[in-house]
Design a protein that fits this description.
globular; single chain; alpha+beta; 2,3-Dihydroxybiphenyl 1,2-Dioxygenase, domain 1
């Protein structure tokens, strides 16, 4: 079984705690990114989202080197099949805060890189 990828949905980068507003100004003023409203499901956390052509950029604060939130997210055609495929290969699936309109989970590759798979509904 193969995982059927549709596209890279977003990239999540981190900034030091307390630098979110400064980073937001950089991404808007210097980079020219278009701000996007974050889903209300994430109101308990800080960060900003931006709409880029064909994908989004998300920023938030770093939790530390052993618990990084940095990742890229791939949209897949069949999230359940992708989960099953990863679990078959011994990958531990991490459930994430639900976001309305998206089903998603994260995992770490064998080298510690965090990744997210998602599907829209």
């Amino acid at each position: 079984m193969m995982i059927n990828y549709e596209r890279i949905d977003h990239v999540y980068v981190c900034v030091p705690p307390g630098k979110e507003h400064e980073a937001n100004q950089f991404y808007i003023s210097v980079m020219g990114f278009e701000p996007k409203i974050r889903p209300a499901d994430l109101d308990g956390s800080s960060g900003y989202w931006y709409q880029l052509p064909n994908m989004e950029l998300h920023i938030g604060t770093e939790l530390g080197p052993n618990n990084s939130k940095r990742h890229f997210a791939m949209q897949v055609t069949d999230l359940a099949a992708a989960r099953q495929h990863l679990e078959k290969h011994g990958i531990n699936i991490i459930e994430e805060v639900p976001i309305q309109g998206r089903d998603r989970f994260t995992f770490h590759d064998p080298y510690g890189n965090r990744m997210e798979f998602l599907a829209y509904h």
